[in-house]
Amino acid sequence: MNTVGIIAEYNPFHTGHSYHLKKARQLSGCSFCTVILSPDFVQRGEPALLGKYERAKMALRSGADLVIELPVCYSTGSAEYFARGACALLEAIGVTECLCFGTETGTEEDFQEAAAFLGDETAEYSALLSTLLRSGLTFPKAREQAANSVLKQYKKRAFPDSFLSSPNNILGIEYAKALAGLHSPIRLLPLRRKGNAYHDTSLSGSFCSASAMRKEIGKAGPAFMPDALLPYIPDSCLDIWDECLFNCVFPEDLCWYLYQRLLSLEDFSQYLDVSPDLNRRICHLRFQCMGKSWREILTLLKTKQLTEARVRRALLHIILQISLEDVNAFLAQGTVFYAKVLGFKKSAAPLLRQIKEKSSIPLLTKNSAAKKQLSPLGQKMLSQDLFASHLYRSIQSGKHHLPFVTEQEISPVILD
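Now predict its structure.
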């Protein structure tokens, strides 16, 4: 039974994602498609615009057969942590033949070569990378220049233009590195991205970016569907959008939770992505953050060396109480300890049966049964996931006056 895997955030789900699901099945020739989906907080260091169950339902209506939740400690991490967690899940369930991911440029061989090169850094490359970073280049640009300089010198070739620095390719390289580290037989299936660029914030062309959709929804306000979005929402998902658009969560909604953490702590160094320099800066400026918006806090804390993306993730880890020690323990002792199901199609019953036979980790469909199935470390990981989900829903409950529903009360999405 062949299964193609996709790693996604769907923040939010749009026609480009529907196209990816369709092409993944066509290119792979697989019978089933499994999506590893970020939960209620994503890699940008922000809450997802729409809840994880709504996004899972959209994916199932658009071609996915099974949606599994990526633990929040990985979904909110850097590209390396994100990829290691997601690839470990695809490997652990034991049925994945290939991983289909979007790219700007490059072939499967390019990604494999980049993974091999970057996974075994030479002293010359490391020294040149440090020099370029000190000159003020961003990490992706510095890495690209350093790698191509070394490759040209010794192999008389270089990677395609922007191959190492474009957003989707950065993740693709980390997927290749993660799978190589796992000695996984899962093969890479790059799919050239169509439509607007990853960070393009204009609603134009055949496929727009998720960034453009978030910007438009934020501008229009909750409970209002901008007409400009309609061409980019799959017809099969319009009713889900109509139901949940007024429940949107934005980065600004995190401020009160951040204030509480900044007031209650005097040291933040234990949390993931909080470097010594950033810890000193947060400690020095924490009282100046009070009353400021999320955007103003980011502007206050970021520097030339501390990028906004790094600061966003660090602040989110402080809010969610995700420590570097915990993540290192997870990585050292198995990476993932369960596959928590967000939804599936009834027609995927053969896939679920095969996963139960072949998976090296429990397949969780009920949180109430998790304690008996998980090790203490697995329970620790799950407790982080539950806390994050409950915090997200507490925002929705307070902001939109909705009844608070615990994760234990919610069942996976099941579609005919």
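The two ends are 20 Å apart (CA to CA).
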